[in-house]
Amino acid sequence: MSTLTPSIEHAGGHDDHGPGHHAExxxxxxxxxxxxxxxxxxxxxxxxxxxxxxxxxxxxxxALGVRWxxxxxxxRMPIIGDTIFAAHGGQITPEMYTMLVTMHASVMIFLxxxxxxxxxxxxxxxxxxxxADDMAFPTLNMLSYWFMLPAIxxxxxxxGLAPEWLSGVGGMNAGNAQGWTxxxxxxxxxxxxxxxxxxxxxxxxxxTLIGVSSMMGSVNYLTTIINMRAPGMTLFRxxxxxxxxxxxxxxxxxxxxxxxxxxxxxxxDRVMGTCFFIPSGIxxxxxxxxxxxxxxxLWQHLFWFYSHPAVYIMLLPAMGMVSDMLACMSRKxxxxxxxxxxxxxxxxxxxxxxxxxxxxxxxxxxxxxMTFMVSTMxxxxxxxxKTFNWIGTMWGGRLQFNAVMLxxxxxxxxFIIGGLSGIFMAAVPVDIYIHDTxxxxxxxxxxxxxxxxxxxxxxxxxxxxxxFGRMMNDTLGQIxxxxxFIGFNCTFFPMHLxxxxxxxxxxxxxxxxxxxxxxxPLNQFITGAAILMGVAQILLLYNFFSSxxxxxxxxxxxxxxxxxxxxxxxxxxxxxxxxxxxCYHGPxxxxxxxxxxxxxxxxxxxxxxxxxxxxxAKPH
Amino acid sequence: MGKFWAVFFxxxxxxxxxxxxxxxxxxWWFPGDGKxxxxxxxxxxxxxxxxxxxxxxxxxxxxxAIGYVLWRGATHNPNEKALFSHGSHxxxxxxxxxxxxxxxxxxxxxxxxxxxxxxxxxxxxxxxxVAEVTARQFEWRIRYPARGKKLMPTPQPDDIYTxxxxxxxxxxxxxxxxxxxxxxxxxxxxxxxxxxxxVPGLVIPVWWEMTDTGTFEVTCAELCGWGHYKMKAQxxxxxxxxxxxxxxxxAAEQFYDGVPRSATEVAQRPQGx
Amino acid sequence: xxxxxxxxxxHSASAALLAAASLGLVLTGSGCxxxxxxxxxxxxxxxxxxxDARKTVQKTMHESFxxxxxxxxxxxxxxxxxxxxxAAAATDDAAAGDAAPVxxxxxxxxxxxxxxxxxxxxxxxxxxxxxxxxxxxxxxxPKPRDYRLGLFKFTSTLAPERITRDxxxxxxxxxxxxxYMPSFLLLDKPGTGDVNTKAVIEYVRWLAMRGEMEKxxxxxxxxxxxASIDDEIAKAKNSYESAKASGEKADPPPSRSAxxxxxxxxxxxYLAEDYADAxxxxxxxxxxxxxxxxxxxxxxxxxxxxxxxNAASRERGRLLYMSDKTxxxxxxxxxxxxNGPATEDFWPKPGSTEKYANRGLHDVWGNKLSPRNLRQxxxxxxxxxxxxxRRIYAGIKTTPMPAFGGTVLKDEDIWxxxxxxxxxxxxxxxxxxxxxxxxxxxxxEARQ
Lengths: 620, 273, 448
Known about the structure:
The complex is a heterotrimer of chains A (about 625), B (about 270) and C (about 450).
Chain A: H1 11-14, H2 29-32, H3 41-71, H4 80-84, H5 94-130, H6 138-146, H7 148-161, H8 164-167, H9 198-227, H10 240-271, H11 296-313, H12 316-330, H13 337-351, H14 366-394, H15 403-426, H16 428-434, H17 438-468, H18 474-500, H19 520-550, H20 609-617
Helix pairs in contact in A: 3-5, 3-6, 3-19, 5-7, 5-9, 5-10, 5-17, 6-9, 7-9, 9-10, 10-11, 10-12, 10-13, 12-15, 12-17, 13-14, 14-15, 15-17, 15-18, 17-18, 18-19
Chain B: H1 2-26, H2 39-74, H3 89-118, E1 129-136, E2 139-144, E3 160-163, E4 165-169, E5 174-180, E6 185-189, E7 194-198, E8 204-208, E9 214-220, E10 233-238, H4 240-254, H5 263-268
Parallel strand pairs in B: 1-5, 4-10
Antiparallel strand pairs in B: 1-2, 2-3, 5-8, 6-7, 6-9, 9-10
Helix pairs in contact in B: 1-2, 2-3
Chain C: H1 2-32, H2 44-47, H3 51-65, E1 66-67, E2 70-71, H4 86-91, H5 109-121, H6 123-126, H7 165-174, H8 195-220, H9 226-245, H10 256-273, H11 275-293, H12 311-322, H13 328-332, E3 361-362, E4 368-369, H14 385-394, H15 411-423, H16 438-447
Antiparallel strand pairs in C: 1-2, 3-4
Helix pairs in contact in C: 5-8, 7-8, 8-11, 9-10, 12-15, 14-15
């Protein structure tokens, strides 16, 4: 066995700096640099991770506000109602409800899912998994985090938290209220909605800042992955996490400028009096008629040209990470590595030409609808291939049923539901009916929460040892998983049925429509489940933060995994690798007959030629 | 413990299927009597059920596969290495071609319905819009041409106006001109399976054909501001004769000059209490 | 191994505690905590009374109307509270034989229902007290109606009268186009007899009476308000200063506390001697007004049928529109676009010589108001000819639109104006013709 291969058992012994654990960095060395302008990719990754986890709680709280209103419409809402609307008996206003809906989506998408995947895990894992010291542009990387903080402030202002001198109208009731899709004219005319006054402008500024942050990240990831791989790390020896991050970065780099441009156009419409999206002669709230000859549909095209690829930006990295974790926890190579890579690429490619399926009812040219329908149908194909391959990966494996694995299985299982419900929407005539109903809400939560967030929960617990040199508590992890899984399904599965019943989205009070009256009890059940799910996340946070201090100490490779990141100390010091890695295999050589005494074969472990020949000669 | 988890994930899958199976009996299914009341709506429903069957079969298949894989994984001899396999080319080919066949089938099968719904050359011939429906924050305002006249693009002195009350005749395809006065709205009649956004600056024709008479609720399906949920209207489908008669009485009410003419008319004056 | 177990236990125990704590939080948040109750906001004029007077007014209001959660159905207000009042039920047995359906619900159920409907649909614009100051109100143009003067714009009644139930019914059913008052046509399911609509109308009437009551009592007590004390101090100070300047001897201005004490003393006397009468009188006054509104005699019924809508009639209407008799054009403009010269003037505030800071017309609440653009084809008070007739006949209450009926214009003339005005949306815009010229006057005279 090569001496180049440090493993947990021997990490101490093989260390050049002497015996014992002196060389292992302090387990909180990354955490302690958190408040600094560090250019270390691991610190930046951790900054992103902790920020996004906290934002997840904010977004979740907003969602519970939404659920409360849907379960107990116009009754007293705890906390929000009590503080802001005490004089009205604590009942919230409809514009407050729209704000909750808007900001829940905005926070979850722009401040949680996108940054937790690309920002947190992308930053942390890319150099480690490809064997690089750091990112190609460490300063740019640092800025990408520090551009997110002003974005959070802008979003807080959009929430209605801006001081009155800054926003013109103060108070939480002035939060932005045009949905995260910001369709004009609601978003373009300040008179059109209470929250579409200053709050919407803040929202757009925040969005732009997030865009800048993501763009700096993408450029970095692309450069790093292309240029800084360790010797022997060929493209097809890269872990699927890296592949997915790479493809995500391409998506991001090409789609994001469109959104940024559109955002500026909308901003100009609002504050400079341009009319990109505003047709002429529109009178809203008895303001002067608009003068422009713009087209509101233009925004939808530009917005979805980014935001559909963004759906994959919010999904692909999780797919990659889950592939890694599934292989490790099944002790088995990923089934069909190359088909996995190709299908990732196919999803990304097709992802650019399906945006119109968000606009089937919008009145765009119907012939275009047909095109988008076919491309949308086709994008289901690579997703299906990936699903089959994940199942294939688990097939015949020696499965380790720990919290990481459970979250990954949930990812696959729930992604199937999310994917299958997508087929209803891809069929244009059916979409006409279910568009903008709760069917859609169910669908994208199955994809974004059911798939992505469960993948993220798994990834947090999988890579936590690398961040802090300690394990997260598995029992707590499993309890968290069970509660979240049950809460999640009880919350979102019934929403499919609501959608079929024609329950429209973003309604502050749907029950005054006689055909929806009987759905109130089901909604109350959903709200109960949502509260359960929300409370369960406190377990995750507790497990995460407490394990930094009291988690079981672990060595370099607690999972017996193959990736390069597991050859570094936990947490890795500055410059990551104490032994410059050389990559000899693909990342998934679990249970390989090449390694006799263990069921994994680290990428850095050299297997002599004669041994390989001997194994190849034997049929396995 | 592994076996428990295998069962756990299977219970979840069974629960999903079971919930869908009982949903129609609990009222958690298509609104009203569960049937579409327009011809196109019925086609949409057929397509929905077709996809539902395909999707259910796929769901059950994949979940059984997951359950089997988990069970096998849980019972795997812990002292034995896992199966060492990098994949199977044949399997990849199979599970690429089969789903793509199914997906293409769905895609092509539904093209016709979509074409009839939206593409102008497929529209029923000689269809005059019965009314202009204008969405505004937060109500639907409707303008009808006077009896025996065609709907003009601009208001006419003898037009008939209603609010939140859309009357249409049955027995032949009907069309409305959909527009909005302010922001974007969406005209959604769940029981007819009709939905069309009202886009500022555009006048969009929407057509459907009623299968029977009745009253059907109209909602707004595109966030249009704080009162989005307030946009409640109704489509009242009447026989051709009833529709014309309704037009006559509505016109009479609209041109009412306040001078009581006969005892019956006095009696018919709306009373608030 | 032992250590691991221990740490696991630590983990689980504290996590369980945390989970329990947060669950507890949610539960207390949801149910156990005391509900904040909706409140009727007081008028500024009530808040400005000296403490004794304020408490008295608030007590009277509480006793007569209650709180949003504890309504009081005051029998003196002409509101259909629903059910029979306990007293009335005992005495009016004979009336039960009438054709009218007997309302068997518990007393006050209609008001209760009205409150429910109001809280759900109206509250966030019109406010709990009907003051037009709900949380959404500040974003709306025009502002939601403040019921508390008892005044409404679009009525079918004569100029001095209140609004009828029918009028409110129309507004709720059909909304007010061009404003954020939407149509609640389908508030009630078909065939349920409009119970919700009727109930909310009674509730709105009740709120209007409540608000007017508060205002009128405040007006009675204006001598006991902090504002009047401030005035007095300012006056005394002025005279003292001027006296000092001219070298005369004068009493120094009284201190605020002394004046407040004096006002409190005066108020005690007033309370003992006159207050009850004042409340009584106010209540009677309000009740009479609202009862009269629903009487046949208050309704505007054109004496003649609509004059045939032809070119001649429209021309007569146009001449009247342009005449100095009506001066319609000064506000509505020569072409009817609502941009007459009056919209460029500074107008005085009602009851004072002080002028508004911004140009244009204002309603009695001080909100800026633009005269209707008659070419839009948008009729806030309804598009039936009789609606437009009534607008011209009785004016639009609370706004500068005056009443022409009976005095300035005969009913036939009004119909001519109606015909002219209602033709405007369909006519090409002609350049402003200016006031009528002599030869054309002949046409009007010829008809007469």
